[in-house]
## 1
Amino acid sequence: MSAKNSKNVKHTTEEILEDSDFKSLSSQKNIISVILTILELVLYFGFIALIAFNKPFLASKLTGAISIGIPIAVGTIILSWVFTGIYIFWANNKYDVLVKKVRQKIGG
Amino acid sequence: MPQTTQTIIGQFNPVAVMFFVLFVLTTLGITYWAAKRTRTTKDFYAAGRSVTGFQNGLALAGDYMSAASFLGIAGLVSTKGYDGLIYSVGWLVGWPIIMFLISEPLRNLGKYTFADVVAYRLNQRPIRAAAASGSLVVVLTYLIAQMVGAGTLIKLMFGLPFEVAVLIVGCLMISYVLFGGMIATTWVQIIKAGLLLGGATLLVIMTLYHFGFSYGELFNQAQNLYGAKFLEPGGLVTSPVDAFSLGLALMFGTAGLPHILMRFYTVPDARAARKSVFYATGFIGYFYILTVTIGFGAAVIVGQKIITSIDAGGNMAGPLLAEFLGGNLFLGFLAAVAFATILAVVSGLTLAGASAFSHDLFVGVIRRGQAAEKEEIKVAKIATVGLGVTAMLLGILFKGQNVAFLVGLTFAIAASANFPALAMSIMWKKFTTKGAVASIYTGLVIATVLIILSPTVWVDIVHKNEKTAVEKEIKAVEDASKGKIADFEKQKTVAKNPAEIDASIEAEKRQVETQIKEVKAGMPKPIFPLKNPGIYSMGAAFLVGILFSLFGREKEAEAKYNDEKIRSYIGIGAEE
């Protein structure tokens, strides 16, 4: 059973799966993970698509010699990191609280 | 601007040797300290799970940032301009994927290797055999690429013979892993990451100081020297499908590298695992942004002519920039950092390969999960030496060969053999043993075969002689025609009927065109058109995994999914 390693087995697997807090944490995590993964895919393959299909846009000048493609490339890196930051912020503030709650309930 | 066209790169450099010896002594000291703390398998494979999120973030960065990214990307930017940036972005974008989909379930479900997770509710033996094959192929191909790179770079920077460089790297990496296990490997990676990030930051500050801390000035000068094209995407991405395929392999290959995945078992819990990805992404992203400045800075301050005269691939752009801005001292420091960079990566790879061998193949397959801890460590240590010696031999064997395709192959296999099975085992209730095994072998075989049939191997390596012969012939035809046309032009100046000669010139041009076309028809053609097979091999691995699972249900595995799900989300029962 799921809680075989915990000291007090009070709940069966089915009970945990039906628990409202567990349901909430698993569905929230799935949604957040899927949304952020899609955003990252769009971000990166959007960048690739610009290189493949719209080179003139990336070549257009922002100021002086700096072409717009340079901040876009650097921005893709920074935004990827920001996405991981968003996930961490959510997980630390919402997910961990729910995990703690569920674990307390089942005596884990 | 320092106008020294002389460089001491390639000569014996006492400063570099001094810094390097300092690094080696420090890391060997740490290894001695770690050896006394390495008793159990948990210590050897996972540093006792005592590494903090921040430390693991640095170690992940140290494990991932290879010499190819340190020297290669800066070199690519300095010689190809904007196109180099495309690579630095590609190397980073797999990390968020690791965080969102992999890091927490991996830590909660597994023990030492990613095969633990794939095998969690499936048949242990076939899964472990398949996953270990995927891991070992990835580790070996990447090790060969690193070893050949190490030999070449160290020869360039320290003036040491190729074989000596490979032997030094091999012996040091064996020592770290053999005696200090994951604890020593982790600290080698942390120190390397610190040195690399510090050195690159210093180099960027000095570069910017040169331009009055103005990026406008840096790019203005770059444009003046090399034209506006230098700051625009050029010929690197010609086929959108090829670019998409490479992007997939880079992104999901990062999430399937065994030495990276293994690091998530060194932290105490899933929370720390997730945190370490945040730090790692920050460090790696920051570093790749620095390499952009280093690359453009080197192109302006050092100049492409000098950079490519030292190394045609541009690999010495960073060290040359350091020499121009900070003299021998800074060059010596960066050369030692490059050495340390290689060592940290190959150590991580060796440990991952040894764990696949001992934990998955020996204990999981041969001993059916039953083996004494002492015996498992012993086998892991034997595997470490075996892998290390194999890597050195292959490194020397591949000396002077074009191994660039190996890095692409590594990522393609990791994305095709490792990632799909891992992701489906975590997320899909109906995933079966047959599905996983079929997916892993399909990914492994298709990625390897397609790379061999692709332009990078089939044309550039297998049919290298034909290719050069055709290129030579084309040049000969062109030269002959140029001579003929020049003759015609000469005749034209004295001829009475220039129109007739013009017609002859046109005829000659047409004839040459058809001739070249005929010669080009003899050019060896790749059997598979893309340079990177990621889109097909990864797609096939997912498809085969899904089909095999749908056509043969595995009730036992489905029944265990609920337990896996709970453990995956809240970490109950996770290895401590």
## 2
Amino acid sequence: MQIRISFTTLICLLVLAITVASAIALNIGLADIEVINGLQDFFNGEQSLAANVVGQIRLPRLILAVVIGATLGMSGAAMQGLLRNPLADPGVLGVSSGAAFGAICTLYFGIAASAWYWLPGAAILGALFTLFMVYVLAGLHSSMLALILAGTAMSSIMVALIAVTLNFAPSLYAMQEIVFWMLGSLANRHFDHVSIALPLAVISWLMMLSRSRFLDALSLGEDSARSLGFNNHRERGILLLGISIGVGACVAVSGAIGFIGLVIPHLLRPFVGYRPGRLMVASALGGALLLVLADILVRQFDSARELKIGVVTSLIGAPFFLFLILKTRSRWA
Amino acid sequence: MMTTTLSAQQVSFTRDGNSILANADLTLSAGELVGLIGPNGAGKSSLLRMMAGLQQPDSGQIYLTSQHDQQQLLNDFSGRERAQLLAYLPQQETPAWPLHVEHLVGLGRAPWHKPMSGKSSRDKQAIEHALNITELQPLRQRIVTTLSGGELQRTLLARVFAGEPHIILADEPIAALDPYHQLHVMELLAEHAQQGGAVLAALHDLSLAARFCSRLVLLHHGKIIADGQPIDVLTTENLEQVYGISAYVDCRDDGVVIIPRKRVL
């Protein structure tokens, strides 16, 4: 499957689709308001119902959907390029489990409720701690295989620790809170969440995008990349740190949203001629689009029992991924 | 004129208690196509990797002398500077993704890329030149995973040429190719040497090595047994001692012909 479309056209189409989806996302909701007026009022600092609904509820939610979708999509593309494997996802080194465990600790001990920044802060620390431990276990100059093994081990440990916190949850309410949080959601997020996720996401994007040449060269293998002048350990370290910061920031504000990092790069790869560097840009846009669309879908349902966005992405992602594998298995066999 | 020289001096390497290389000395000068020969496990790949700067020897030094400079340790070059002078073609390189031929060839320009800029006109020229000399122009839009083994090897070689290196280190570049493609690849490497570059290639086909190489280096158990003109290296004694074969060696006007006859116990 090789699709002939210029990179610029693809990027323009994706940006256009995101713009349309964003406009729809801002226009739907329970309150019947004028979105344009609301936005104007919000940016002019005027208080009105429309300004509050759009500025405090819909806009942060939309921004988070774009930022998180983009980060997860790009991280997935980066990780697949780094591992030279289309089945890798950003969580393969255990960073998302680590972030989830950090966040769950604050829910478990009840400190998440005391200030909004406890949970995201703990999640990012959890992600960075996991990456640090992976490097400690595998060694700084280890092979990629050693890193994956250490990552799998750390991931298992973190999942086990999450199970422990669930097992000993102080109350049913705390347990429900943890489980719901793990499903992933964009509901009830405000600009404080944007202010923590956006800067970290931008840092992670820059770190990943600056390594796109390395990922291209890595298509030829580790030895060839090194012989082309790249310092593989350094490049890999920067990429993994970027992925960890990005994924940590995403998990921190939205919980675990699965499958975007796996499906989106896989879906877009033929459109960019399988070039890993360009795939990162395309996947960021694709991820943002998917998450905005998923959020629109989520908001169509009964708000009393919120459908979690992580559930939707998994529900769409898993069968779709299966379909892709069946369709392309002859080529990867 | 390119006058880059690469030399390994007293290089030794041990892994898990096995001596892979022992005090190997090898100098590769401009204009040479040197064949690195020896049985499987003789240490050819390790020596190539060390001379490419991919593996540190336990002892000994690798020096790279570029055009106007003094002899310099290979380790003192930055990865980028080294890659501009020296290219390495691994044994059986398999692309991870089904890239287009022209994109794969373009990857060879990596040492010349400046940050935050696209392909320069020089990049484009070098890629076109590499596609031309490897006769890949008709295949440039093809996807590399659909190529035959010979076409793929030519693509990978074009990737090396696209980087415009002075020195090419190639690990078994003609293994698993049909005679036509074997000759094609050897001709391309010989041409690179004739134009002032230098090539060190690990080879198993002794007749082709003798036919194309200006010099052969015979490696056995990590030691260099012989280094010189093909005719002086490929003696029946050396073949018996190193490869454990008795062979028919015939020197003719158009080169040396070697036909292995039987194993010597």
## 3
Amino acid sequence: MPEPVLFRGARVVDPASGTDDVADVLVAGGAIARSPVVDATVLDCDGLVLAPGLVDLHAHLRQPGREDKETVESGCRAAALGGFTAVCPMANTDPVADNAAVIHEVLELARAAGTCDVFPVGAITRGLGGEEMAELGEMVDAGVRMFSDDGRCVPSARVLRNALTYVRAFEGVVIAEHCEDASLGEGGQMHEGLTSSSLGLAGQPREAEEVVVARDLAVARLTGGRLHLCHLSSAGSVEMVRRAKAEGLRVTAEVTPHHLVFSEEDLLTYDTNMKMNPPLRAGSDRGELRAGLADGTIDAIATDHAPHAVEEKEAEFDQAPFGTIGLESALAAVLTHLVEPGELTLARAIEALSTAPARILGAGDHGGPIEPGRPANLVVFDPSADWVVEPPFASRSRNSAFLGRRLRGRVVHTMLRGELVVADGKAQR
Amino acid sequence: MNGHLLSIHDVSAQEIVRILDTAESFREVGTRVIKKVPALRGRTVVNLFYENSTRTRISFELAAKRLSADVINFSTSGSSVSKGESLKDTALTLQAMGADAIVIRHSSSGAPLTLTRWVKGSVLNAGDGTHEHPTQALLDLYTMRDRLGRLEGLRVAIVGDVLHSRVARSLSFALVKMGADVMLVGPPTLIPADAPAWGVQVSHDIDAVLPGLDVCYMLRVQRERQRQQYVPSVREYARRFGLSRERAGMLQDGALVMHPGPMNRGVEIDSDVADLPRAVIEEQVTNGIAVRMSLLYLLLGGSGPRAAAGSAEEAGAVRLPEEVATRA
């Protein structure tokens, strides 16, 4: 059992209890304790923020299959360094996580790493093929809380209907969708607009996302199932989700830090680290994503951490794979580009990075509240520390959209069930 | 031009005039018995062609050879590239071999810009994906100016698959820069939605446009556009947008018919129309060599402020200044 720790004088931001106050937080026996304990290690947190550990609903840890890009161990270390205490690896591994055996393997690797809780996402359909439902019940028994065919949407509305209906048997299980119409999105390298036109790159219109969001919301209405929409990128999608929530549908949504920070104009130099799917869209879309995040239409911030090999990204733009890593920079990106300019309160940022995703996932040990008896899954960060996003990363890949950029806000400590897995900015495992 | 020619956006109107003026003096070289000047003696120009393109590669090769440069043709079939070598490693290899200029043709938009990250020499875009083909646009401007005496105020229609055409992009940008009036003509599926933002007009009715033109520029239409459902059939396209004899008769006296080649005779252009005196398609090819000589010369030999200040003649097409020869 880890030593007792006293975080002294931190600004405690805990959306679950509505707290935002300077306080001491004592941890003993893996849980938040009641003061005082005499022999605790004292960590001076003057000027630092203490919050519930961050929860990432959307990451690609590439194991099994592409261990050259990332492993569960390296991905968990990157997550811990980024302040995350829980992360959801997507199912598009090789083999696909469409059965309990792969889920058990990932969970076993995560236990061995011991730096971050892992909630594997199971595939909705066998082999991500979009046709036959995978054995969802078996995977729920293995511990899956969320299913997704991420990388593509479920092309058949009927299959989606059945999946949303079937999982109603399982308390708290959610179906997550990557919304992209394959035919409208086909061949698209970036957002379709003036920039794609002047770069001569095939565009993916925002309507490729919107037609699937519209369809999925209709199917959610039909089934009453719990639907989560991944990495929204378009203003129209935000508005549809806003209306669906007002109507009372059981829908939640996430947005990535890179869609909140960048736009299509960041591709003007054909920088393949800016190539992701869904693509970075217009500045007006980014504005609506920020507004939707601030007003709660978009519940959560998720990284869509997508590691790729250097030689794959150092290629011709249309031959490079989609995706950016994000676990190590997500918190700082949000603090620098949204909280510091005053577009998002710190409490709402923490809610979107921790409390809301923990609730969506049903991860009761995460997301706060920071109260006596609760598991000590915490992050402590310095909101005023400047740093430049550059290698070395804990991730095995370095395809960061933020590469070379200065961000403010650095994780100091990450605590998983009372153990400091990151101390003074250094991974302890 | 900043050492490279990647896009028409890299050159100002003033620089375009200088490129065309320099080409003017280089064209004379092509009429000599010994078609060669020593301007780039000892310099190495690499033609790096990831797409087959006989005419553009030969044009660049002749241009470089007439300037006395050493020319290496690196075609990707049967080379290290067909063994899976990346663009980066090919670039580093060419850099290590001391290439002064790399002329690149690639099916990926942006590949020339990406190449500049890894090489020190000048990069010339000889066509990248659906992005740009700036040397084609410049030789087209040269041909228009040569035949019609001006560029400003010219009424030019670019007809065909503008959406997928790097030629149409570069030519539109260049003509707009020089003050010409550009009309893009084609079915709505093949005209970019944001074309008005380029400073051009759009029409879907070629018959309405033809009588007012100084130049009718026909683009090659690829048969795969039918398969991709941009047009119902090549036949319907040819009937609605092809430059038939009847349509060519609607052009005013002195109006030019142009085409970047290779032509699909009988699809976008009637065979007889392609052979009319007003069709200057072979002149475009001839002028292409002079314009590419001009570009290679200005980028490799005369890109400094001294050459910029001097006239084309001083810059060495006819009489070669010492410093250019010795810098080689």
## 4
Amino acid sequence: MTAKQTGAVGAHNAKVMNRFDLTKKLVGQLKRDEAVVAGIGNANFDLWATGNRPQNFYMLGSMGLAIPIALGVAIAQPQRHVVALEGDGSLLMQLGCLATVAMRAPKNLTIALWDNGIYQITGAQPTASASAADLVAISRGAGIANSAWAADEDDFDHLVASALKGGGPSLIAARIDHKPAVATTDRDPVQIRERFMRGLGVRR
Amino acid sequence: MTDAQTRATAWHEIVLATLKSNDVKLVVYVPDRVFTPLIKAIHADPFFIAFAATREEEALGIVTGAWMGGMRGAVLMQTSGFGTIPNALASLVAPCQIPALIFVSERGTLGEFNLGQAMVCRTMRPVLDSLAVENHTITHHDELGFIIDRSIKQAVATQAPVTFILSPLLTGGKVFEG
């Protein structure tokens, strides 16, 4: 069997979906002022396009750190559920954070992973997940038992609803298409951070 | 004898007490031999939430999230680990104005045996200075509590990170045992 056949794309039958569509579905399920931390690039942009919730944090730099930031929020506010939105390229840059999340085992943290198999924003170069790496298997191997590919949109909705119940850290991975994000964020880190802190009730 | 060995209160006891009195609850570290007594004491104290991250920049991300969620945090690392964090400093901590408290166990000087540590040590202060990140090299036991206490308060008040470089003159450092 070749690497291509054993990788994420070959090893499961998940439907290829759209990131903005899934981001809307996810945000639509947030009813309790859940925090959302989105990673650099398109994860950010499509979250921005769903509307400006004050509990959204848009990470403009520091590729790979959306999940660690979300973990920090989850530790500081154990009563609030926290969702990290991250892309395959970003996660591959900081795989160790999955092991840290598993070790801490926060009940209030969900990771949504958008896997399109490319570094989309830099010119669509292939990521390792396009041919070899199965990021759900890696997540399970890191210790996040509740890691799954979303088979289709309905399955994604179901997995999100289940994760938001807060039984433990979970990772929901979705294969996504190569369509560009539908908007771009503002670029003011201080304003983004301040609004987020107000959204979390830390600042007035 | 180093300064540390001549004192009744160990350097790590002063660091721990100062973190506590400033309500710094979260300590995320990448392990270091010299910091071992500090890390052990922090783990033993239920006031703290303490754990290892897999990488220094990950630790910075975690304390950034915690700060935004209302909890103060510190990151502990050794000098070579500093080499992994300039991007996180330049593109997250500094532009978002996060009062991250960064403690570096200084390697690479005063008897270093590992050239890699020495090279990173030479880049550390120029990187911090070029990013305008406040940094203090602490060599004297008498000044330790004052510098850390005042600098934590300044970091929070001015919403800016601060780095404490703990010199072998303070901690005893790590010596070649081979």
